[in-house]
């Protein structure tokens, strides 16, 4: 026979055992939550350290070029005609243009540059300012005439139609700051003259010298690509187009805004005026995969596969 109140005491003992058994379970769950929280914190810390321990060549979405700039050199208050600040570096080991030459070519002039302590990085333009990297800007008689993304560059004849011109190339960092030494931009200027020593006549001018041999006809175009840009839309949609090595390619692009057309690998480019078709013709004399894009809006237009 149980004593009076035995059932109540037995119930209390059962309740205490249940409480004791529940405590380890709650403790285990709490421990797991703490471990997960610490792991997440360590992961985030590692990601942050990875982003800040080394410079990046492309800025994060939502930040400007200046915010992405590295600590290379010292920014000066001096600016170029577009408002880009000068980036002062020490003379020793500074980027420089050693040689700058130009010769007449098809439909314009062919430029050849020899640079020192400098590397052209067209795929990183818009990123951080890294030592000795970037691109160049070309000026004809002090007026902007496009960007230069390699040691060889073509100037359309429309920019140099007259007898004599002053050509200037100036080196820029990827974040569009101007490389400078001693407060002066890193650049070089040369003077070019038209081969015949005269101004180039307009296309519709009458031929007043019949005995003069006619200009040889241009090689036939093997492939014409027509592309239209409307905002962020490219028509036809970007894809890969196969051509044969040696083919003459003509790109005709119509953009709804002013921009610059550029063929990577061939370092060919053309200015795009808003609403007006612009053509760029070249010979596909290199094999490989080459992207065609706009540099202002950063749109991929197509990819050329040359076999």
What does this structure look like?
With 307 residues, this protein is of the alpha+beta class. It has helices at residues 6-52, 65-68; strands at residues 74-79, 85-88, 96-105, 108-116, 119-120, 133-140, 143-148, 152-156, 164-172, 178-181, 184-185, 187-193, 223-230, 233-235, 240-243, 248-255, 259-263, 268-272, 278-283, 288-294, 300-306. The relative contact order is 0.10. Residues 1-31, 50-81, 190-220 are annotated as: Disordered. This is EfeO-type cupredoxin-like domain-containing protein. Residues 9-18, 209-220 have a biased composition (Basic and acidic residues).
For this entry, give a set of tags.
single chain; Immunoglobulin-like; 5-stranded mixed sheet; 307 residues
């Amino acid at each position: 026979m149980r004593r009076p109140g035995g059932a109540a005491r037995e119930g209390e003992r059962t309740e205490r055992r249940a409480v004791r058994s529940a405590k380890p379970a709650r403790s285990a769950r709490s421990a797991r939550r703490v471990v997960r929280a610490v792991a997440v914190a360590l992961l985030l810390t590692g990601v942050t350290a990875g982003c800040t321990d080394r410079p990046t060549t492309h800025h994060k979405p939502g930040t400007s070029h200046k915010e992405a700039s590295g600590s290379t050199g010292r920014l000066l208050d001096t600016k170029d005609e577009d408002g880009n600040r000068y980036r002062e570096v020490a003379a020793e080991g500074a980027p420089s243009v050693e040689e700058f030459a130009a010769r007449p070519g098809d439909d314009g002039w062919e430029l050849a540059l020899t640079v020192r302590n400098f590397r052209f990085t067209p795929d990183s333009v818009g990123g951080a300012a890294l030592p000795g990297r970037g691109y160049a800007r070309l000026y004809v008689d002090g007026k902007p005439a496009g960007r230069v993304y390699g040691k060889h560059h073509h100037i359309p004849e429309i920019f140099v139609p007259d007898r004599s011109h002053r050509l200037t190339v100036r080196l820029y960092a990827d974040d569009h700051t101007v490389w400078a030494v001693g407060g002066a931009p890193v650049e070089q200027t040369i003077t070019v003259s038209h081969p015949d020593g005269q101004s180039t006549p307009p296309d519709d001018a009458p031929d007043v010298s019949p005995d003069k041999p006619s200009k040889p006809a241009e090689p036939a175009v093997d492939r014409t690509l027509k592309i239209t840009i409307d905002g962020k839309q490219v028509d036809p949609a970007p894809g890969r187009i196969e051509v044969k090595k040696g083919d003459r390619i003509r790109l005709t692009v119509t953009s709804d805004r002013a921009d610059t057309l550029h063929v990577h690998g061939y370092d060919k480019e053309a200015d795009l005026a808003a609403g007006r078709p612009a053509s760029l013709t070249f010979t596909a004399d290199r094999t490989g995969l080459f992207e065609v894009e706009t540099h202002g809006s950063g749109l991929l237009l197509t990819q050329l596969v040359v076999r």
